Amino acid sequence: MSSLPESGSDGQSTVDPSQTTMPLPRYGRVIWILAGEASGDVIGARLMQALHAQDPSLVFAGVGGGRMEALGLHSLFPMSDLAVMGLVEVLPRLRHLSQRLLEAVQDIELRKPDLVVTIDSPGFSLRLLQKIERSGIKRVHYVAPQVWAWRESRVKEFPGLWDRLLCLLPFEPEWFAKRGLEGRFVGHPVLQSGVRQGNAQRFRLRHNIPANAPVVILMPGSRRSEAPRLLPVFRKMLDLLRVQYPDICPVIPVAPVIAPTIRQLIRKWPIQPHIVTDIHDKHDAFAAAQCALTKSGTSTLELAMGNVPMAVTYRVNPVTATIARRLIKVPHVAMVNLLAGREVVPELLQEDCTPKKLAEMVSKLLSDPQMVEKQRMAFADVLEMLAPPVGTPADAAAAEIMDLLNEPVSRSSSI
Hints:
Helices cover about 40% and strands about 15% of the residues. It is α/β, with parallel strands linked by helices. Helix 5 (about 170-175) links the parallel strand 5 (about 165) and strand 6.
């Protein structure tokens, strides 16, 4: 599956002297895909496979991570350049992000793809879609912006940004419809994660972990701005926990791109966590785990798929937190809790994200079977809500994209 077109349909390229840039030659329809973080890379890779199954002649270009690159995508620039979160945290990188935005727009101008797909990362994705709004290129945004959670006023900026909006959560199409926008539910990619194929014994043997040692998953986030805030708290928490659980075994699953940063941050920890970068090893770790501490977001659904009892914790810049609290409109931040409509898993955020409180919560998860069972019963109900009407989420998303791709072009290009 190549991502760089090599020649035109007649084997030769043709240059239009009126163009300031020469379009790249091509042999099939081109889909330009953008993924801005690790979860988007996973979604993008599955989408590429599903699209290619429907049309093997498709050509892919754009920005992605290791999983998309393994399928032939030559990323325009490192996906990690876009993985930043927080209102304050993004400020020092604005100039660099603006440069990357310009590069993406210019690459689209050069390639003139048949369709552009942006996956999540709304801060970057929606600006890109706006820049190419008048291009005549069909546009799909995959993973609806979570404006139902905060900054609902942004909805007024959305009309015209995309031709199709693909939603992961079952309540989103109705929410957008009430505000004059169409959204299509395609199911949540977590259902294809393969978490349930994990093997606990294999993980313990591979990492030489004793059978009775409690395994605790720590998920500090995939963005470079997240881990430095949570990991120092996790270290102090482990110092407290090892008094009661001297053989406690922490495991940190991370994307390969962020692994060197994590290793550097934990190099002096008295208890050295196992760093897991392979997706299958991650699923084995979930199977072996007694509990987890995770940031909010998709990771809560992954852990629910693995039946891992958890607590959600998060810490950002205090200024970011103050602004966010004024804007957030939902009662919970954990996706599991939002879908259940109640607090299924505890949320220890900002001021509550302390070593002592986290240690107490982990101890409770390790010692309270009733609490664990209540979580697991709720997980099953939540996950049932996330299935598309037919097939897999990737197949459903690919079907929507192919449907749009095959529609006649109704706009004239101005790029």
